[in-house]
Amino acid sequence: MNNLFTLDDKRVLITGSAQGIGFLLAQGLAEQGAEIIINDITAERAEHAAMKLRDCGYTAWTSAFNVTDPEAVESAIENIEREIGPIDVLINNAGIQRRHPFTEFPVNEWNDIIAVNQTAVFLVSQSVARRMVKREAGKIINICSMQSELGRDTITPYAAAKGAVKMLTRGMCVELARYNIQVNGIAPGYFKTDMTKTLVEDEAFTQWLCKRTPAARWGDPQELIGAAVFLSSKASNFVNGHLLFVDGGMLVAV
Ligand code: NAP
């Protein structure tokens, strides 16, 4: 059974993985044997995160690039595959959040959200998938959200982008499954990270969240690792186009 979930011989690129959920996934997948490539915009932050993994005895590389820049993405993926080796698993994790009422939302912030949360998934996946298609093997995991399904006050552009990532996951699945590439999504509920800092500090929000979530608590980012191991391993070789909600039951409750 253990072999079903082993990630020995898997090389995993995780975008935006110098901190938060991306870094915890890097640690969790490395623990199962994966070789990790940490991505961040800045080389220093990526190197710092990779050092932490190496200190634990894991194999970690870095590739610093802005996931929203088409040329930077293409040249980084080419370099990774030439210098480090083929990418077996891609996790599209980089994301940003901005909060304003819909009627006040500045268009430049809308553009930033769409670029990082949506267009980057297209750009990085396309570049990696072209190479996976040739090898007829690969796994792509898109980090979606509760907001792939549900709207919420002040974060309409984020919900629009995460809804699009759900449909990118399904569309990519339809086009890539025939090449033995499994494309799936992980949709986290509410987890304590830098992105949710303002909500974590808001006691009224935490009270609302605990009432609204069947599990009656915040998620611990460590609790996303199991889903990522499953979707990266051969245990999920016939799982295609699925969104795995890790949300304490929030989506199924009114
Ligand atoms: P986080 O702590 O803010 O981490 C996001 C990471 O993305 C940061 O390391 C950030 O780097 C990186 N990033 C942003 N723009 C980038 C770019 N243009 N190029 C490369 N890297 C970039 O957030 P998180 O909570 O871990 O979120 C990770 C993912 O989970 C996101 O897709 C988010 O939407 C999703 N998610 C989170 C929650 C939650 O409860 N936390 C719930 C549902 C979904 P810098 O800091 O250097 O900018």
Automatic annotation (TrEMBL):
Q: What is a GO molecular function of this protein? A: gluconate 5-dehydrogenase activity
Quote the PROSITE patterns the UniProt record gives: ADH_SHORT, RHODANESE_3
**Presence of keyword NADP:** yes
Is S-adenosyl-L-methionine tagged as a keyword?
no
For this UniProt entry, which residues form the secretion signal?
none
Q: What is its EC number?
A: 1.1.1.69
User: Per the database record, which ranges form the Rhodanese domain?
Assistant: 23-70
Catalysed reaction per UniProt?
Answer: D-gluconate + NAD(+) = 5-dehydro-D-gluconate + NADH + H(+); D-gluconate + NADP(+) = 5-dehydro-D-gluconate + NADPH + H(+)
What keywords sit in the KW lines? Carbohydrate metabolism, NAD, NADP, Oxidoreductase
Q: Which InterPro entries match?
A: NAD(P)-bd_dom_sf, Rhodanese-like_dom, Sc_DH/Rdtase_CS, SDR_fam
Pathway it acts in? Carbohydrate acid metabolism; L-idonate degradation
Job of this protein: Catalyzes the reduction of 5-keto-D-gluconate to D-gluconate, using either NADH or NADPH. Is likely involved in an L-idonate degradation pathway that allows E.coli to utilize L-idonate as the sole carbon and energy source. Is also able to catalyze the reverse reaction in vitro, but the D-gluconate oxidation by the enzyme can only proceed with NAD.
Family to which the UniProt record says this protein belongs: Belongs to the short-chain dehydrogenases/reductases (SDR) family.
Q: What is this protein called?
A: 5-keto-D-gluconate 5-reductase
UniProt source species: Dryocola boscaweniae
